[in-house]
Amino acid sequence: MLLRNLSTYHYHYTRPSGFERYIPLAEVLAASPVLKEGKDICPDDNRFAVHYVKEKPKNLLRVCKLTFHNEDAEVCKQWMERVTERIRSDDFNRPKRLLVVVNPMSGKKRAVKIYEQQLSPLFALAEINVDLLITEGPKHATEAVKEYDLSKVDGIVSAGGDGIMSECVNGLLLNVMTKAGKDINDPDVTLEQSPVRFGALPLGSNDTFARWISGARDAVTSALQIILGSDLPIDTCSVCDDKKFLLFAPLGVGFGLIGDLAAAIPTDRTKLTGGVWLNAIFAGLKLLAKHLAYDVEIEYKLGKQLGGADSMESPSQDSAKENDEASGDASIEIDFGTEFQTFRGKVKGLVTMIGDIATILNKDFETSHLQDGHLYLNICKECSRTQHLMYIKDVMNLTTSNRPYVENLQVTEYKVRVLMEREPPSVEEAASMDQREFVGTGLALNVDGELVVLEKPYFHVKAHKQCLKVFGRRVEPDATKQK
To answer: Following DSSP, what letter does each residue of 25-80 receive, concatenated?
Structure first.
């Protein structure tokens, strides 16, 4: 029996046993007719179902259903209409139309099937219209989203792994910049915030971005957050060379061994089966054996010390000095000003992430710094092979490396110039080179898992504060994991 009207943001129901419960309207997906039992498949006018979202352990979301009955069919009809009207009002900011971009090669080529069987019915239940785009090859998603009329939809959603996610984000932000008349090749340009939200359905082999914004690597959970209209503005960063814009990086950038690994692994990931995967692993081991170091000059701008809950814990001058003594390498002077600071010396590599990995993976968005315009710059200085291997292990496990030969800085932007003994290959020479020939050249970058080859040994990475609105939510840290 229904006891509350829908002038409030929840409704109240009573079971025959007397048990009472409130369900917030913010958790209601839809109200729909119930079909009669038997051979005749037709709606039962005296019953209707309310579909709502319930949170399960490990931050998972699932759909539950309650069926209500009333002897007066008109009452059931009015309740369905009123529930639908309230949850689709502007108070809840739910999407009404989406562009969903599916990578058919993701999930062992099962992404389209999983979307059609598990996720499309959820969007249909919530009466969300979907424009479906199945990509046909690399960069198809970027070009399609870049040219898409964003006024037609309330959100862009990628279905696949981090690769298709990165392509869609790049297309979306390029679309926004083009419409705003901004010069994307200007290194000092300020990005406009996307007018539509972005979501990611994790159907790939490594769905890091989806875990960041939803708290779980689960496609149904991500789809339900999109349907409920969850809203979270986050940072991203741009990568440029000395002349032009290269890519946006929603996750991060790797240079050194991480960049060389991207060059050593074949671009056509669909061929990475059997012996090819073994060859890729063997290539990584060979890179570790080479123990390459790069002589670099890094100019970086430290982030502001905000204080309070939003403050960033930058290393102190004493800790920086201790780290330098332990590694026996060049020092990084800590100066919390707004000017560029300079580091020059040999490094094994560097990794940049949008936020603090440890707190992101613990689902603690309050301290993960995904929204304050900072980058986490992680520099591995000269060290032994064993120490380098331990650093790589930290990176692959997505944990913050606090080893004495590793510098952790929170910056707003930085520039890297690789000091090379010989001239880099010309554009014509580079075009004819196999990608594996760029290993050890100092020209290979790993941007969100994809290889970017520089024309010159220089790149510039800059944070852009809250320019990307995502279908995400703030999730409380998992108490069971913290114990």
So the answer is: GGGEEEEEEEEPSSSS--EEEEEEEEEEEEE-GGG-EEEEEEEEE-S-HHHHHHHH
